């Protein structure tokens, strides 16, 4: 992976990272917002400490461990990636409550257009803020967006010490099994 200077990472602030999407996906994974490493590379979940790609593989969604630069391969497995908020920041706590609400509104429109079977939001706090659902927990939600079911997954950031890669993979696997049913 390329190394970036602090100045190069800072220059990626507010950049937009294109979604990896198609109509009718099995699962559309939804991050909070791109980090600076993701914005600098143009690849989702690109920060080395982020556990998204290893957990995706451990849970059985992909037959091998993909690199962030191989993100478009997800489409061949019926998977995609988007974000609640499009703009890149160093930390998710830089986002405002209004950005989360507007992001949730735009995400619902995107999901209604793309019609994935499942929307999987990685991060319960982001889901709660985007959809004004303060009681949401990790797991399947009652909310539907059109015909799309919603599942909240643990945030794969290396900063989320409450979940190990193994326990995250178990939760991702629960979603995979539901999506295959």
Automatic annotation (TrEMBL):
A Pfam family that the UniProt record links to this protein: UDG
Signal peptide interval: none
EC number assigned by the record: 3.2.2.28
Family matches, as SUPFAM superfamilies: Uracil-DNA glycosylase-like
Keywords for the protein's UniProt record, in alphabetical order: DNA damage, DNA repair, Glycosidase, Hydrolase
InterPro entries for this protein: MUG/TDG (IPR015637), Uracil-DNA_glycosylase-like (IPR005122), Uracil-DNA_glycosylase-like_sf (IPR036895)
Domain of life: Bacteria
Domain spans labelled Uracil-DNA glycosylase-like: 18-179
GO molecular function: hydrolase activity, acting on glycosyl bonds
Protein name from the UniProt record: G/U mismatch-specific DNA glycosylase
Gene: mug
